[in-house]
Amino acid sequence: MLSKRANIVPASPIRRLVPYADDAKKRGIHVYHLNIGQPDIETPKQFYEYIEKYKNEVVAYTHSQGILELREKFSEYYKSWNIDVQPDEIMVTNGGSEAIMFALGVICDPGDEVIVIEPFYANYAGFAAYLNVKLVPVTTTPEEGYRMPSYGEFKKVVSPKTKAILFSNPSNPTGVVYTKEELEVVAKFAKEYNLTIISDEVYREFTFDGSKALSMFEFEDIRNQLIIVDSLSKRYSACGARIGTFVTKNKEFYSAALKFAQARLCPAETTQYGALGLLEADEEYMKKVIEEYKIRRDVAFEEISKIQDVVVKKPQGAFYLAAKLPVVDSEEFIKWMLSNFEINGKTTMVAPLSGFYATPGLGKSEIRIAYVLNAEKLRDAILIIAKAVEEYNKSK
Amino acid sequence: MLSKRANIVPASPIRRLVPYADDAKKRGIHVYHLNIGQPDIETPKQFYEYIEKYKNEVVAYTHSQGILELREKFSEYYKSWNIDVQPDEIMVTNGGSEAIMFALGVICDPGDEVIVIEPFYANYAGFAAYLNVKLVPVTTTPEEGYRMPSYGEFKKVVSPKTKAILFSNPSNPTGVVYTKEELEVVAKFAKEYNLTIISDEVYREFTFDGSKALSMFEFEDIRNQLIIVDSLSKRYSACGARIGTFVTKNKEFYSAALKFAQARLCPAETTQYGALGLLEADEEYMKKVIEEYKIRRDVAFEEISKIQDVVVKKPQGAFYLAAKLPVVDSEEFIKWMLSNFEINGKTTMVAPLSGFYATPGLGKSEIRIAYVLNAEKLRDAILIIAKAVEEYNKSK
Predict the structure, then answer these.
(1) For residues B272-305, b (16+ Cβ closer than 10 Å) or e, as one string?
(2) Cross-chain residue pair B43–A55, CB shorter than 8 Å
């Protein structure tokens, strides 16, 4: 009686190993969670202050596109990033997740195709399956540092059914920050084939070593075929607020998404006010957060590099690092690590990267590390991975 | 470049007339909003108390199925209504809206059909279009008080593509509370044709004159093909919390919905804690609310009945009343009322009922009144409708 789409939707590769971690915890093992992009950084106090400040006697529906005051604040924020959009070009969504779903729904009918750069954010596959959209991957590799594919690579996969390109920059899961030249490949390709660009820019602030995440908005001639997906989850360590945005200058896209938005009424009123507070957080907050992540990135990269035969390049953004380990099947390895391995009562959980690929069989030796713990814990957690790799390969 | 589904999704009939109301307000007219189910009743204080109480340093993701403590509270609540479900048979959703979308996604592929009893909650059409599901209506009429269609009527519309029946009890928009005999028609029909029942029971508490809203859970032999959709929005006047539930004893349905849920990560953490507070609200709160709505129902029915040639039966539940007015096109009439009519600087907005039908042309003279204002305002608001009908028909 189940639908086909229910069967096709993959279980989240980030969450499906949770039962193994739960079992480890039951055995009294401490598990370092590097598997999910849930930061340990404190959420700005303004979140609760604004909820308190805007407390209403009746917790009511808001406009479906979100509270005007919040969209005005977002508009200011985007302008500070050189993304010139008005409040009526911004829609508040239930996290970036819903913004992606709206974008796919606006552009694609069942059977239509969307090009993704693999490895990609795993939940894209879930949204696509839910809406019967086919993800068509262009592959990148750990050996080449997961850099942007060439124009020719994109051209190979385009078909009459191709409607859009969906990708994230900085990239989840690889931490790559694309250069202007790399992004230009996407812009030109989209222009040439009249494709919509769904640009997931939620990690905009998270860049290191002077690299800068350019928005696809930079490319003027594709602005009318651009949807930017954004979220406050990572920026302000407020994943549980579920506040994202769907941003577009294309009025048709906006009106269509608004109809979807009206059907589900509105995002949570309460956390929209909280979000208003988040956007008031001072720049100091963000600066400190980025400094902290840079330290972590350095530690994570240093430690993971020590593993013999690992393939890893230094990531420049987001808070992820993807690496190829000298193991045949990283998912089996992670299960084993959670079930059979510990150092001083501790073990580590990371995400297997195969779930971030659409091509079957790819990414099997790769993992994603979310460096969301402080430097000391992180060092310990990755040391555990290194030792585990040794033991695991001995045990095989 | 827009998808077909984006074109098919109807604009919300409840929200699409908002610009006319906004214009009226700009002209200094006070608009009584009887068009949307947004109650004026105070949300229980526990909502904010619990948000404060469970305030975390990091506003983090929760489990995708919702916080365990909240699902435990829901389980207790359902048991008190004779709906025997465990926490792992309850999923917390972004309002009842998301629960309906999960249900449709779990059961239906593009092109599949779902039977609805029209007039039905208008947003069902939006969700169905988004997921390429076809709603197949069985019609009820104002003259017959919108009662449950016969088994024979259901049988007429069933096809090999029919996967489910979706309906609400008490009914939005008609306020009908179905009897056990009427619900048995649905249960038998679903059993006979092996259809899933998606039972929208969000107005469970809102019944008057001793009538009782039975859950479809009462029918033991269809429990494994039942999904109950629920929401705290109306019960606790907390529409902006966006907390609903997807409830099923069918493990396949639950696992499939959980995969959809994992892709979108979780409902807002903050309002889940608020919801925990709501479920602590004492029974006195609910009693008072129902008493208040009974008074309003009586006033609304009394006043609307005074209109000459109106067709209306006394509704027994929810907080809606559907009526057939002596106007050819109620949507035009409502626009006219907002644009050209006022008494002492006031006018009234209601919802045109045509958007609650799937059959083109039906419901054109009908309206839905949400009696979400206090008795005095409600009387004034409906008096305005009565006078407006007179004037409107003179002006034609």
Answers:
(1) bbbbbbbbebeeebeeebeebbeebbbbbbebbe
(2) no
